[in-house]
Amino acid sequence: MNAKVSIARLSILSNTLLIVMKLIVGLVTGSVSIISEAIHSSMGVAPGQYTIMPPSDLGGKPVWFIFNNFRHYKSGKMNNKSGKANFDITVRNFCDSIRQCNPIYGIIILTLTLFFILPGETFCEVPATNDTIKYYDGQMFTIIGKYHSERNYVRFPKEYKNKLRGDVWDLGQHSAGISIRFCTNASLITVRWTVMGDNTMDHMASTGVKGIDLYAYVDDLWKYVNTGRVKGKINEFTLLKSDGGIFREYLLNLPLYDGVDSLSIGVNTKAKITPPKENWLTDNKPVVYYGSSITQGGCASRPGMAFTNILSRSMDRSFINMGFSGMVILIYRSEEPLLKQMPPYF
């Protein structure tokens, strides 16, 4: 055996041992990413091992002999001399075939087996970051787009439940026009939110009905960042991944045609998150806009595209959205006193 072959075999052996260690650690800790890395490493070792010691060097037992035995073992077709399936002989023959092969091929076979057994989605997982996420209740920050101070995300205070038409009250539970202002230097922003009704509409995108979207104040403008896709009643979505380190003002718009039971904003633990440091959208008097479905945000693809939210960002003042789908035939007497109480430019 010449020196080059010895060095090559030593290199393959050391890499194989590393693969074994990765597999053990991955299986013990349950880390999919480590197991996946071991499998991919084995793919690199296989060609080298084949070149240094091809299957013909394995005492006449090619690698596929193992797969052949394993196939018969699974199907129960391996028979003893009497022609009947015998479990003991099947297992013994299978184990003997493995022992007759080079151990490095065994490692390669093991990793390939894991590759086919584990679900495909496993290897598409995004590895977790070293920094964990800490969540903060949305009520800790500045809520705009509603005129009362109750700790919720609905458009009417509780005292009006029995004073308004039932349909208007129900639509008032939707968080149309309500947004959360905050400031952070986070490199990762994730939002968890639970909706009240898990509503769906055939003619409107679910991201508009019960989704959220995020804007950041950059270069003197509110610029769109991302939309939180919905899965159902309980949702979680990462809206931002960046290098971080820069404090920015953010605007989180809430669902248009569903209510929000709870909402929390998650940032990486090394980041800071506070109420807004600037008075954008909060310094000027709000505008109350009364209307029907289009005002509420009907058929907008996401909350930030409801026209009252567009006007809010353009005019640097919050809009209190009093749009109620199909309800504005005329203003009922029971609703008139409520509207007269509202601050501003109605």
Structural description of this entry:
This protein has helices spanning 3-29, 32-52, 64-75, 87-99, 103-117, 166-172, 206-209, 293-296, 307-315, 336-341, and strands at 133-137, 142-144, 179-184, 188-195, 212-218, 221-228, 234-241, 248-253, 260-268, 273-274, 287-291, 319-323. The protein folds into 2 domains: 3-124, no CATH class; 133-341, Galactose-binding domain-like (Jelly Rolls, Sandwich), CATH 2.60.120. The longest helix is centred in the N-terminal third of the chain and has 27 residues, at 3-29. It is 34% helix and 21% strand. The protein is built from 10 helices and 12 strands. The strands form 3 sheets. Strands 2, 3, 5, 6, 8 and 10 form a 6-stranded antiparallel β-sheet that branches. A 4-stranded antiparallel β-sheet has the order 1-9-4-7, with no helix packed on it. Strands 11-12 form a two-stranded parallel ribbon. Helix 1 runs antiparallel to helix 2, helix 2 crosses helix 5 and helix 3 (64-75) runs antiparallel to helix 4 (87-99). It is elongated and about 95 Å long. With 346 residues, the chain is α+β, with helices and mostly antiparallel strands.
